[in-house]
Backbone:
């Protein structure tokens, strides 16, 4: 599994759980984009990538 910081794990689980993502720092989103775990849609919202979904599932104990 990809090594993530605590802030990155929290942001990924927040996004994967469809919780409010407004409290996540912009730099954390950029880090997750660089890791190819999320992508930013044209409307400004973020989605998990396929890899991001797999990491999310691992974090949530689904794998």
Residues:
């Amino acid at each position: 599994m990809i090594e993530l910081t605590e802030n990155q794990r929290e942001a990924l689980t927040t996004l994967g759980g469809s919780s409010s993502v407004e409290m996540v720092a912009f730099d954390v989103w950029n880090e997750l984009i660089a890791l190819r775990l999320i992508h930013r849609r044209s409307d400004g919202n973020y989605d998990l990538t396929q890899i991001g979904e797999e990491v999310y599932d691992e974090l949530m104990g689904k794998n």
Remarks:
- The longest strand covers residues 38-40.
- The beta strands are 38-40, 46-48.
- DSSP finds three helices and two strands in the chain.
- The chain has a mean pLDDT of 88.
